[in-house]
């Protein structure tokens, strides 16, 4: 049985996917996925974990290609649709993908490269004539222990690593969230997230379709289009579900504030009808959570996950959603905090520690990197996330990534995220990011990049204001005023890029 895909499917006539004006039923999705699987097999009995890289625009085509790869026994390797050729080459060559699938709009980018390497090249829309002897072929039976997907880490500190998940791991990630967040076949979810990351692939698309709900795709983000979908969903009486990253909520808030009072009231009424709104992939500023709650009536559900494990910690669907906290362990997921000496913190210890995870949701390996895989796990099987948190009254609060968000300055260990939260409460600061840069005297110097709403902001006055709200040793020593912060495809600030900006000033 293939665990990565829902079987049996819901009512074949039920709408599975909406892409613009195109509506795809579950029956059509099943049929086209099966047809694509047979095309991939091309008479073979089983792709036997051959890697298939695909660069496909969000929508029904994306899902049928992904499902077709799984049905044929292949390993799905989704490519980022905004990557330059060099980045795409790295993924294709690292996975040794033998087949590359593209939407027509990406054909020109990859044609010469694929032909030079002698790879099989499938352009959607020109692959539909499956030979008769192939169209009726029997699909392989896939054991759930087999590899299903390779996603690549962001590569902020070194070359990206391929994270290999099995069908069983995907099944564990999906079924845990189905229960924890109460998905149902009535859900209408909007996907405006990149589909080469866990957030969009698992939390939005896989969970909604496994539950028998409907996924609407927004190929190109715009705040106006998102709010239009919100209103149409509410007016149609659908059960709305929305998941995004903090950057998207920040942009939605900024757009909302430009609207008239009548427009704002109408949109707020629409948002109030939604079932669930979630934020993840980066720390959610408390100020953004509070503003969105005022606008929508929803207290965002913040959670914690990563490529290697899907979701592991979440604020509750029913119960207190605590601002500034990532929540509690999800059912079936083991969580512990470990100090610098490698000892697990005991109950009641409020010291910071690295988050370590154990459970069926974990990835299998880093693709062809046995040393990196071994180093990522403890001897007793816990995955070392590299993220630091504290446990406060049963809720985990993230302090940041140990390699980038924990700043060692003057003998103190400081959380960049905590300093950022205070900075964001200043009326003249629209956004910010805090990093540590090498310094002979302090070890690391605390510095902050600011996006300001008042270009006349006096950083000397800002320092006085900060010292009233935090110890002096946490106050940034240098500031850089920027038009915008450098971010990756998921909206996370790329802090290594930010450090370079300070080094150039």
UniProtKB/TrEMBL annotation:
A Pfam family of this chain: AMP-binding_C
Molecular function via GO: medium-chain fatty acid-CoA ligase activity
Superkingdom per UniProt: Bacteria
Family affiliation: Belongs to the ATP-dependent AMP-binding enzyme family.
Protein name: Acyl-CoA synthetase
Annotated ranges, domain AMP-dependent synthetase/ligase: 11-367
Signal peptide region: none
């Amino acid at each position: 049985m293939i665990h990565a895909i829902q079987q049996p499917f819901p009512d074949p006539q039920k709408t599975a996917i909406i892409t613009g004006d195109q509506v795809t039923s579950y029956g059509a999705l099943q049929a086209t996925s099966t047809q694509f699987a047979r095309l991939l097999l091309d008479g073979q009995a089983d792709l036997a974990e051959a890697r298939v890289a695909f660069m496909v625009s969000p929508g029904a085509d994306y899902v049928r290609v992904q499902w077709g790869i799984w049905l044929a026994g292949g390993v799905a390797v989704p490519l980022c649709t905004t990557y330059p050729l060099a980045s795409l080459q790295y993924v294709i060559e690292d996975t040794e993908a033998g087949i590359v699938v593209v939407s027509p709009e990406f054909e020109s980018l990859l044609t010469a490269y694929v032909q030079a390497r002698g790879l099989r090249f499938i352009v959607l829309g020109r692959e539909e004539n499956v030979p008769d002897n192939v169209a009726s072929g029997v699909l392989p039976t896939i054991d759930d222990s087999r590899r299903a997907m390779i996603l690549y880490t962001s590569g902020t500190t070194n070359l990206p690593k391929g994270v290999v998940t099995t069908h069983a791991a995907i099944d564990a990630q999906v079924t845990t969230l189905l229960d924890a967040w109460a998905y149902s076949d009535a859900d209408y979810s909007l996907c405006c997230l990149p589909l080469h990351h866990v957030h969009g692939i698992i939390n939005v698309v896989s969970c909604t379709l496994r539950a028998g709900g409907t996924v609407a795709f927004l190929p190109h983000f715009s705040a106006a289009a998102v709010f239009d979908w919100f209103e149409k969903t509410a007016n149609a009486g659908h059960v709305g579900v929305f998941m995004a990253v903090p950057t998207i909520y920040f942009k939605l808030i900024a757009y909302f504030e430009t609207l008239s009072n009548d427009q704002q009231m109408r949109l707020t009424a629409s948002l109030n009808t939604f079932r669930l709104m979630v934020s993840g992939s980066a720390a959610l500023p408390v100020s953004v959570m509070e503003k969105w709650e005022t606008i929508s009536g929803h207290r965002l559900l913040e959670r914690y996950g990563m490529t290697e494990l899907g979701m592991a910690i979440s604020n509750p669907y029913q119960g207190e959603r605590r601002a500034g906290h990532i929540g509690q362990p999800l059912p079936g997921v083991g969580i512990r905090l470990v100090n610098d000496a490698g000892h697990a913190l005991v109950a009641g210890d409020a010291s910071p520690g690295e988050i370590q995870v154990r459970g069926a949701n974990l990835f299998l390996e880093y693709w062809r990197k046995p040393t990196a895989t071994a180093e990522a796990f403890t001897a007793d099987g816990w995955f070392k996330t590299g993220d630091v948190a504290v446990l406060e009254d049963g809720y985990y609060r993230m302090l940041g990534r140990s390699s980038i968000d924990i700043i060692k300055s003057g003998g103190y260990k400081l959380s960049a995220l905590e300093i950022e939260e205070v900075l964001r409460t200043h009326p003249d600061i629209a956004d910010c990011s805090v990093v540590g840069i090498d310094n002979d005297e302090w070890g690391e110097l605390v510095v902050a990049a600011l996006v300001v709403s008042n270009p006349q902001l006096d950083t000397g006055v800002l320092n006085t204001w900060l010292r009233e709200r935090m110890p002096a040793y946490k106050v940034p020593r240098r500031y850089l005023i920027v038009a915008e912060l450098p971010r990756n495809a998921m909206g996370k600030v790329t802090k290594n890029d930010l450090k370079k900006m300070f080094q150039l000033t």
